[in-house]
Write a structure and sequence with these properties.
By secondary structure, the protein is mainly alpha-helical. It contains 9 helices and no strands. The longest helix is centred in the first third of the chain and has 48 residues. It starts with 12 loop residues before the first helix and ends in an 11-residue tail after the last helix.
Length: about 300
Amino acid sequence: PGASRFYLSLEDDLMRIFGGERIANLMTRLKVEEDEAITHVLISRAIENAQKRVEGHNFEIRKHVLEYDDVMNKQREVVYGTRRELLGGDVENVLLDMADEVLEDIVSVHTDSRHVEEWDTDGLQTQYLTTFGIPAETDWAQVHEPDEIRKSLMEGVERAYQAKRDELRQVVQDAHDGQASDEGVTKVFHDFQRHILLSILDNLWKDHLLSMDHLREGIGLVGYAQKKPIDEYKREGFALFEDLMFRISKEGVSTFFRAHFSTEAPRPEQRKVQEDLAYTHGDADDAGKPSKAQKLANWGRKKKKKRAG
């Protein structure tokens, strides 16, 4: 009672790699039987040293895993901090800051030349219209610095933002017979922005996690190029994370400014199509009669010839 006995296999991978052959030779020289308890000090010490080397190897593995996890943890803290800010902070300032960041990138891409006449103003206006859904109202003959263009275009963004608020106020008042308060309109307006940004952040964050998993699976190959895998993982992971944060800003801003508010209910024919699309099983009397959705799906297909029998 109170005693313990442990059973070892020298053919185990870890024991074989970390001293199994030496221990086997010792046991052969000492003529230790297979069913005899090992009490010799040389064999006990050899087994203990092998166990220490195994633990050291496992510790290095856990250490590397922790270093990789630390990279993701820092990114996770930033994303979750942004998420908390969206849930409880001032969404209005967040969206306008994102718009300013996106606008700065658009301007820098199309005005990267030192000569004003070489700027791609047409491409800038197209990108501005595509992103914000509003035309650029800038007098290009009066601007000579990229910062001046950004400020001019940002003023248009702020006007469009206020126009969105006024559009929503009109829709809410129409829905409530003009009884909606400014506080209620502001709350709905902020909730609308919060919903857009949170939805985009969550979807892109899931995609980013998958990209980081793929990066981690193949990062060990850079060791053949005499590079440290963890350093390359940090560098490439940071580049992916920067791209993630910019995509959140760009898609959030574009979705918000291109959205429209409406209180119109679906038309009867729209509801009918939805009912047909959701239709799966009919009554016995309707068996064999295709629905409108089925007719739509089969439209344009060649009819197969029926075989008798």
